[in-house]
Amino acid sequence: MARPTREVVNFGVSQAQRPSLEEDWKAILESLDEAGMLSFLRAILEQRQPMTDKLIKKMDSAPTKNGVKTFIRMMMALGDFDPEGIDATAKALAQGFAVAQQAAAEPEADKMSVWSLMGQLKNPDVARGMHFVMGLLEGFGQALKKE
Amino acid sequence: MEHEALTHLIVNGQPISTLKNDRLIDVLLGHQIEVPHVCYLPVLGPIQTCDTCVVKVDGQWARACATPVREGLVVDTHSEAVRERQATAMQRILGNHRLYCTVCDNNNGDCTVHNTTELLQIEHQTVPYARRPYPPIDATNPFYRYDADQCILCGRCVEACQNLEVNETLSIDWSMERPRVIWDDHQAIGESSCVSCGHCVTVCPCNALMEKSMLGEAGFLTGIPDSTLKPMIDLVEGIEPSMGPVFLLSDLEATMRQSRIKRTKTVCTYCGVGCSFNVWTRGRHILQIEPPLEAPVNSVSTCVKGKFGWEFVNSPERLTTPLIREGDHFRPASWDEAMGVVATRLEAVKKQFGKDALMFVASSKGSNEEAYLVQKLARSVIGTNNVDNDSTYCQDPATFGLHETVGFGADSGSLKDIEQADLVVIIGSNTAESHPVYATRVKRAQKTRGQKLVVIDVRRHEMAERADLYIHPQSGSDPYLLLGIQKYLVDQGWVAREFLEQRVNGYDAYVTSLAEYNLDWVAARTGVSSEVIIQLATMIHEAERMSILWAMGITQQGHGSQGSLAIANLLLLTGNFGRTGTGGYPLRGHNNVQGASDFGSKPTYLPGYQRVEDETARARCEKIWGGEPIPSTPGISNTVIADGVLDGRLHALYIVGEDTALVDNNLSRIQQALEQVDFLVVQEVFLTKTAEYADVILPAVPSLEKAGTFVNTERRIQRFYPALPPTGDAKADWEILTLLANRLGAAWSYTDPSQIMEEVSRVAPILAGVHYDRLEGYHTLSWPVSADGTDTPLLYRDRFNHEDGKARLVPVVLSETKIPDSDDYDVLVNNGQLLEHFHEGNLTYRVPGIQHLVPEVFLEVSPQLAQTKALSEGQWVRLVSPQGRARIRVVVTDRVQGNEVYLPMNSVGEGAVNQLTPELLDPDTHTPAYKHTYAKLEVLEEDPGHPLPSGNWRHQHRNPRPGVEVEQKWARSDYDPLVGPDAVGKEDTNRG
User: Fold this and answer.
1) CATH 2.60.40.1220 correct for B827-955
2) DSSP letter (8 states) at residue A14
3) What ipTM was estimated for this complex?
4) Range(s) for CATH 2.40.40.20 in chain B?
5) CB B678 within 8 A of CB B349
6) CB contact under 8 A, B692 and A55
7) How far B248 CA sits from the closest chain A CA (Å)?
8) pLDDT at B234
């Protein structure tokens, strides 16, 4: 004889005290898990092979290869530059852009005659700039000749 | 062997041979020739909205999907001009769709829009994406949402809804400035005629229609809130020079998802159709159900339960540890202790009262292997034939009718045969709700191919609404109607003479037995006019191929076996067996009610329908099983449990996965028996009503947490695999049974269900060739399966399953079923399944979305009865039968007539129908006459309210259309054709 019942009496299981180091690790792992980082990392590790295959497949095309080559050579070429010279040039370029913007905003900026251009060459700052550009062209030409 | 004529064509300069009239796209794809396509799916046919499969055929632009092959066709699929044109079509699509793939939940490697864009190497978008000028999101359905801003208007969803599922809800409003998919006449999804079957979501080629369970869950970055996500998408779009890097990133992310998303093939457990699909899980979260094209029964089709009804597996109410009764409560116990108690008590009962004092009930929801082990436990460990399954409650009469006549008590063919029929007759089956995916193929054949549909039923359900001829007979009079039709067919000479002479015995005696069923008598007895009987007989006569589908409306009538016999006889008389498109189809209700019987959990049958009286069969089983000798007399069926306990024959019950306390007829009597039985063990997933009476409850797992096979209504054996680990300490039924058998002294060594199937193949000749390796993935076998693996999807092509190979016409013997004496019981309480809920709802009430759609049971009453009793919508009523009473709220509907009401079985409380059902049994099979329930209806004056939410599809009107109506798209002023004589040139800014 058994009367119907839905009652289940649970005999509670006491929780053991955890050491705080373990607690910290658990908290860190839980946070990583909550942020999705654990599954993200796990997925990368587990799928490294097919992901690499996809990457390689995508990269194994003429435009990608050319792009990568160009990037690498440009990086190597940068090594030939004098860092201090670059620094000074970069500063000069920044100031040049600032003055250029002001000049372009002048009311008479839409007019320029040959005479006024010649007159500008007398300005020592313009002359220095011109020498820089001419020097750049000269070095460029020398390098092309060596090729 | 007959050779079909081949057609020859030239594709890209190469010769190809194929069958005439195949679709060009299928031929090309079949020969691994790349053709982009977005809207095309073989199961849906050509939709012709996307234009991406454009190719040159004999020098003309044409869609490959809509071009049938013919001799000499010259096709160009890969010239630059063709690729450019295909890219133009794709660009139009992208004007409607934003490619934020990496943060899209549909980026799982199978997104058609993503993959086609990549295939066409589109690097820059030429048709700028523009949002829709209306609110894009409709999230009013509990299971899925529509995002118009991502919708490419391919129309797959519409085609699936209109012409595959044929629920006829979705269409595209091509008249809008920016068209969109609409539900009915621009209803919100949650207030439309949508039945949440999920077809549209499954076939959507992008993320426009998505399962809500996927949103924010599938990807690594998809859970980002919209407020952050949208600026991120804008940023990426703003700085990316081309789509290449974006696609690389999304491809890498999609690859990473394979680590977190597990896809497992399973077989649905919500009815006997046997839909199979992949369950996508992330941890224990069910992301989606994905029915693949190759699923053998259903392809991309599902119903609401199969697609969305699985959250119960994570219910906190799951049983996770064995429970042992202590007085008026249960306490948790270890498996060891629980098994000790069960073994000791069962042995004690056996010793004190004998082997036949124990009764075992196998689950019709469990696997074949588990049903086999339940009967093996009963027979070889205990030594009794007292073992049964749920088929006694429902399908045994159909088995009887077919077994007597054609020899196998099962469906004679497959769903594909039903699709091929010229005439389908459905009797006593609300197929659209009880076997929804079967119904889709009948509705589709009727709508798209002109198949004729006749429905004989007391309730005007969806199939009745759609029928070419709907017949409402007096309840339970169907067998008389069937005999009247046969008498008329014989009188007219409209029988299959040659077939009868060559393949059927007993014709003369059978014709004699029909003598009394003349038109006038039958009309008077059934309430169906002579004219209608003649009309139906004429339709049957004119149909080359007829299939008859039936279910509980026949089998649960008190003479269900004789009714089923009448159906089988009608099919024999008209020669409708053994050919594609013909046959008898009792629609099995539970996912494995067929298999539980096939594998021997019946008091009369050993596995494979070998009778227990068969000495050779017993000897074969005893040799393989060892243990106790098998008794040569049949055991008792589960409809005799209450009597058996109350009259002292039964002292211990072992019930696996059946809620006997609710599904037996006359609940008060079975519940009394469960209370009184000396020892009751229940293996269950939840604490069901039956489990409440148990002495020991053993926690079992549902199908998603175990492996095994099921047999569907087609006799198709299908494997399912574990998608999730077991919950808590719960175990698969086969593991529990193995533990118990060994505790009782047996030496079972099963460690995997495949080993059980190996044993079955040696025990049951009709299953001789069934092995797990032949059932891998989506491979299936339909029994009988010979040792070499040859199976039998269509029975009786050459011979019937009797010794001489001939079928038998068996005279039908009908006796009137008793109805209550008192005139007070003037309401006929028809009852059955409801689309949304499975049976009493133990599983489906634990799915919040289904609970939202149909929160409680209701009683359908007719407008006439509502008027007579002054009932208003939602009014509480009490039904009182001689057996008991039920309290329910009413829904007034013309699905029922006069004093006939319909009470679905989805209640475990005071609305439970089996409080009312009578103690009448079918004399041949002991199946209860559930449908023969009469009651009086009392109006209760309390707490009005509506049991069925106003948004429910039953309150809405469908919107039948021929399909996508792509002609309306082509007629728009902003559409320039890419195919045909008016095809445009290269420059293009159309939006697809």
Assistant:
1) no
2) P
3) 0.71
4) 827-955
5) yes
6) no
7) 7
8) 77
